[in-house]
Write a structure and sequence with these properties.
This protein is mainly α. The chain has 5 helices and no strands. Helix 3 packs across helix 4 and helix 3 packs across helix 5.
Length: about 110
């Protein structure tokens, strides 16, 4: 399976197959209302972070002979998915700003 290209006119949802939750969209709309316009990079990083968390919460990862369904097990999976995403983002110089914004939001 090949990963979709990230640079150019890509959308982070295409990478993870997810969309940000409505709560995050409401927060971005509130920021816009207050004149605090988030950049496209900030919105993309938020979408990627949400996708990493959603992907890591899929039930198929947990159970017998898999990761334990515990705080530690879920944390390890989120960290693993975030690391893979960062490796993918760092392949292309055009995605450096997005990679940094993702790290800033993640930590």
């Amino acid at each position: 399976v090949t990963a979709p290209a990230l640079s150019g006119k890509r959308r982070p949802q295409a990478l993870l197959g997810e969309t940000p939750p409505q709560t995050d969209r409401r927060m971005l709309n509130l920021k816009r209302f207050l004149g605090l316009t988030p950049s496209q990079t900030q919105e993309d990083a938020l979408s990627l972070l949400d996708g990493v968390v959603r992907l890591s919460r899929r039930p198929g990862f947990f159970g017998a002979d898999r990761l334990p369904d515990s705080f530690e097990g879920r944390l390890e999976l989120v960290m693993a998915h975030a690391a893979v995403l960062l490796l993918r983002l760092r392949r292309d110089k055009a995605d450096e700003a997005l990679a940094q914004e993702f790290v800033d939001r993640f930590f």
